[in-house]
Amino acid sequence: MRVPSLQPQTLLHAYANGAFPMTDSDGITRWYAADPRGIIPLDAFHIPGTLRQLIRQRRFEIRINHNFRNCMTACMTAKRDEGNGSWISNELIEAYERLHQIGHAHSIEAWHDGQLAGGLYGVSLGGAFFGESMFHTQRDASKVALVALVERLRERGFSLLDTQAQTSHLARFGCIEIPAVEYQKLLEAALLLECRFV
């Protein structure tokens, strides 16, 4: 279904009902909902041993919301460079920046030598975090950002990390697929929580 509005309250209402926007190859942004749905159970998150070693080396500095727009733009560019196009459009960047300004969209960024090396962004609502996209220009930078995200969600009492879909990359960290009906129950419970991402 074509998206009639990308104003913050419309976006938040969509997320609260299990929907998310994507811009298709024809340039039109539409609502989507996945069934099955990908999630990373926070209590079953797995960090590969080699990544643990890298994190201990403190090669990357984690920053939260330091440069949200650049992080999201980098995600868009990375998808296009992979040759499959990108579902992130300039229209969506503007929409999520408005959501960021009112405290519901966030970036988790991995910096190295003063440069943005990787990261991810997503939306927080209640006790749910909806991961949208990630990128890296330096190896493992986005993985370090993902670990930082999960640590933050655990610390602040979040109960749901939504990835929309399971990928082989995310499966290494414990991402699973569940039926949409089950996802909706988890989402409804998460929305009752009062969690603050920042």
Q: How would you summarize what this structure contains?
A:
The protein has 198 residues and is an alpha+beta fold. It has helices at residues 8-16, 49-57, 68-81, 90-101, 141-155, 168-171, 180-191; strands spanning 20-23, 29-32, 37-39, 61-64, 105-112, 115-125, 128-136, 160-164, 176-178. It starts with 7 loop residues before the first helix and ends in a 7-residue tail after the last helix.
Please outline the helices and strands.
Blueprint: H1 8-16, E1 20-23, E2 29-32, E3 37-39, H2 49-57, E4 61-64, H3 68-81, H4 90-101, E5 105-112, E6 115-125, E7 128-136, H5 141-155, E8 160-164, H6 168-171, E9 176-178, H7 180-191
Parallel strand pairs: 7-8
Antiparallel strand pairs: 1-2, 3-8, 3-9, 4-5, 5-6, 6-7
Helix pairs in contact: 3-4
What is the topology, as strand order, of the major beta sheet?
Answer: 4-5-6-7-8-3-9
Tally the helices: 7
If you consult CATH, what is the topology?
Aminopeptidase
CATH superfamily: Leucyl/phenylalanyl-tRNA-protein transferase, C-terminal domain
Helix content: 25-40%
Oligomer: single chain
Distance between the ends = 33 Å
| C-alpha geometry | globular
Main sheet: strands, sense, barrel: 7 strands, mixed
